[in-house]
Amino acid sequence: MKRMICLFSALLLLFLSACGDTTGEPTGEPTTEPTVTPEATATPEPTPEPTPEPIREPLTGLPCEEDLSGTRPVAIMLNNLKAALPQQGNSQADIIYEVLAEGGITRMLAVYQHPERVGLIGSVRSARQYYWELAQGHDAVYIHAGASPEFYETKSRLGLFTVDGVNGRFSGNGTFWRDRDRIAGHHYAVEHSLLTSGETIAAMLTKEDKTAHTEGYRYEMTFAEDGTPTGSQNAVTVTVPFSNYKSGVFRYDAATGQYAVEEYGQPYIDGNDNTQVTVTNLLVLQTTCNVVDDKGRITVDLSSGSGWFACGGKMAPITWQKGDANQQLRYFQEDGSPLALGVGKSYVCIIPTNRTVTAE
User: Fold this and answer.
1) Do the beta carbons of residue 151 and residue 128 sit within 8 Å?
2) Backbone angle region of 62, left / alpha / beta, with phi > 0 → left and psi within -120 to 50 → alpha
3) Which residues, in sequence order, are CB contacts of 23 under 8 Å at separation 6+?
């Protein structure tokens, strides 16, 4: 009996202990979770947007507002006989190519990216095969007044689109006109009187749907803000002889960073406003020129050769190559690396290999 009472008492005590304190005072850990303050996180800095490359004019490298890499330039044949001067619109050309025609005379091929900005252009003269090949290098619309038999044969055989002011549908539709008194105080022979205008040419190209480059074409020239060649000689005055009849003189002006052009002992003038033609880059390409007919017409090898590049009052030797008619001219430094031109307009003289360029 005593054992039963003791066992009952032990179980009672065990039960009361399991029930905890009955006094109402809290025991053990609190039942609510503590408040945790989150750590502050730094706001990441925004990633700066990359600065876009400026849009550049294809032929000069000058900054512009509109991408014109898909727009064809025009290339216009200009008369350069003394009796036909001054030319008109020549100062606004982005690139001027001067090459022998026949009998020691030269003509210019003036290349314009923005013909609509140019006023009167002329006087316009006849085409030659190698001038057309220079225009082809730019995928340019070729504009001329008549042509040599060689070029007319090429045009017919290949079905070329060119704008001819003497033969064909453009000769009488208002694209060209004759003005024998085109410069005040001058009366010109009829062959020196054919004019067009940049506005007329631009409207014609739009109408003909000829403003877009051939698919896949891209002008590959590169430009530098300072195109002065390294390892070069002084070239403040550069004289470029084409023949016994014609030499070009280029005088560097450090204030403008450009070469002012002279010919026939006089400034090379634009008759529209009497401004002298100035350029940033002068390139002289030497090559083989051969007389091919009794008129004195010549062939000009545009495959490759050597020459000179002047910019910033300095001049250095270069090499150049073109290849076939559809290829563009490419220029190289003596070490074989591509030549970068200075930002601005260019003048390209193509002369026989037996002529010597002088610089001082």
Assistant:
1) yes
2) beta
3) none
Can you tell me the mean pLDDT for 151-165? 97
Query: Strand 289-291 vs strand 298-300: parallel, antiparallel, or unpaired?
Result: antiparallel
d(CA 357, CA 308) in angstroms, rounded, equals: 9
Q: Which long-range contacts (CB under 8 A, 24 or more apart) does 292-296 make?
A: 292/150, 295/102, 296/102, 296/103
Find the mean pLDDT for residues 135-161: 97
What is the average per-residue pLDDT within 195-208?
Answer: 97
State the number of CA atoms in the 13 A half-sphere of 117 facing the CB: 10
Amino acid present at 186: H
What is the rounded CA–CA span in Å between residue 334 and residue 297?
33
- Residue 5, both tokens: 């009472």
CA dist 97 and 346 (Å) reads 9
Class at the top of the CATH hierarchy for domain 74-359: alpha beta
- What does the pLDDT look like over 75-122, one tens digit per residue? 999 999 999 999 999 999 999 999 999 999 999 999 999 999 999 999
- The candidate with the shortest Cα–Cα distance to 282, out of 121, 131, 98, is 98
- What are the residue boundaries of the structural domains of the chain, listed by start? 74-359
Q: Could you give the dihedral angle defined by the CA atoms of residues 257, 263, 266 and 267, in that order, rounded to the nearest 10 degrees?
A: -30
> In angstroms, rounded to a whole number, what is the distance separating the alpha carbons of residues 239 and 98?
14
Place of tokens 């290999």: 353
Three-state DSSP at 184 gives coil
Task: Name the nearest CA neighbour of 151 among 299, 348, 324, 296.
Answer: 299
pLDDT in tens, 217-265: 999 999 999 999 987 899 999 999 999 999 999 999 999 999 999 999 9
Q: What distance in Å separates the CA atoms of residue 43 and residue 189, rounded to the nearest whole number?
A: 79
For 350, residues 6+ apart whose C-beta sits below 8 A from its C-beta are 97, 98, 99, 100, 285, 287, 300, 302
